[in-house]
Amino acid sequence: MTSSAVITVTDAGIRFRRNHKGRRSFKDLFSTKARRSKPNEFWALQHVSFEVHPGEAIGVVGRNGQGKSTLLKLVANVLIPDEGSVNVNAGVAPLIEITGGFVDDLTVRDNVYLTAGLHGMTREQVAAKFDDIIEFAEIEDFLDTPYKHLSSGMKVRLAFSVVTSLEEPVLLVDEVLAVGDKSFRNKCYRRIEEMLAEGRTLFFVSHSEGDLRRFCSRGLYLDKGSLKLDGPIEAVLDAYNEDYPGL
Ligand SMILES: Nc1ncnc2c1ncn2[C@@H]1O[C@H](COP(=O)(O)OP(=O)(O)OP(=O)(O)O)[C@@H](O)[C@H]1O
Q1: What is the rounded distance in angstroms from the CA atom of residue 229 to the CA atom of residue 51?
Q2: pLDDT classification of 181: cutoffs 50, 70, 90
Q3: Which backbone phi and psi does 162 adopt, to 5 degrees?
Q4: Strand positions, DSSP E, the chain
Q5: With bands split at pLDDT 50, 70 and 90, how would you rate the model's confidence at 21?
Q6: Which of the listed residues 18, 60, 68 should we mutate to test ligand 1's pocket, taking the one with most ligand atoms within 8 A of CB?
Q7: Residue 7 lies in a domain
C-alpha cells in the first residue's frame, strides 16, 4: 500500500451461497477450513485489486449482479472479504441500501440523531445541523413520524441528506439518484459537486452514463465478479458499451 492511498483493495474475493438452505451449519464453525461444506457457493468478486487516493471520484459500472454493491459494502466494512484484504484508512459515509441504516420504529428525528451519532457526531454537532438536514430532505412535517411510514422517495431524501451531512472523507453512493424526483436530483447533484470540491473521495455506482461522466474521472468495470478494467471513466464506459451494446 502506498502511504497516500485512502482505500487499498488487494486480491479481494468474497463468496456467497445461492440459497438459504445451503447455509453453513453450526458444525461447520468447528471444522477445519478444508472440511467445511460449501453448498452452492459462488464468488461474487474475486482477485480484485486497486488503490484509491484522496479526492478521486470513481464510478463503478457493470451489468446487474456483477458485484458493484458488494464492492461498496466491502469498502464500507459491512462485508468482510473471504480472500485478500480491503483497507480503508478514513471514515466512510455510506449511502448504500437505502433502508439499511435507519430503524423502522424510530421517528425521523431519532433516526437522524442515531445515524449521525454512530458516525461520531456529538448531540450538539447534530443539533447544529439538524434543521439543514431536514430542510434539504424537505420533510419538515414528518419529524415525529416513524421512519417506516415515510414514502420511499422521502426515505431516499432523508438518507441522502443525513449521509452527505456526515463529516467523513469518503462518500459511497449506490444507485440512489435514480429514485428521487427531478428537482431533488438536481439538489443532490449540487451537493455531490460541493463535496468533491472539498476534496472528498467518491465511490459512485450508477447505471446512468450521464451521472458517471458528470462526477467521475476514473471508472472500475466489474464483469462476472472480476475487475475487468480500471481506467479513465470514458475508456471504461466505452469498453462497457462495446461489450454490451444497446444496454
Ligand atoms: N448477501 C448475499 N447473499 C447471497 N448472494 C448475494 C448477497 N449479496 C449479493 N449477492 C449476489 O452477489 C452477486 C452480486 O450482487 P451485487 O448486488 O453486488 O450486484 P450489482 O452489480 O450491484 O447489481 P445491480 O446492478 O443489480 O445492483 C449477485 O449474484 C447477487 O445475487
Answers
A1: 13
A2: confident
A3: -65, -50
A4: 7-17, 41-52, 57-61, 83-88, 92-95, 170-174, 201-205, 218-223, 226-232
A5: low
A6: 68
A7: no
Question: ipTM, 2 decimals?
Answer: 0.96
What are the pLDDT digits (tens) for 106-139? Answer: 999 999 999 999 888 999 999 999 999 999 999 9
- Answer whether 22 contacts ligand 1 (Cβ < 6 A): no
Q: Which domain holds residue 92?
A: 54-243
Q: Which of 14, 15, 16 to mutate to test the pocket of ligand 1 (most atoms within 8 A of CB)?
A: 16
239 within a domain of the structure (yes/no): yes
What CATH number is attached to the domain comprising 163? 3.40.50.300
The per-residue pLDDT for range 79-108, each reduced to its tens digit, is 999 999 999 999 999 888 755 679 999 999
If you measure from the C-alpha of residue 199 to the centroid of ligand 1, how many angstroms do you get, rounded to a whole number?
30
User: 201 in ligand 1 pocket by Cβ < 6 Å?
Assistant: no
Which among 15, 66, 75 is the best mutation to test ligand 1's pocket, defined by most ligand atoms within 8 Å of the CB?
Answer: 66
**Residue nearest atom 10 in ligand 1 by C-alpha distance:** 16
Question: In angstroms, how far is the first alpha carbon of the chain from the final one?
Answer: 36
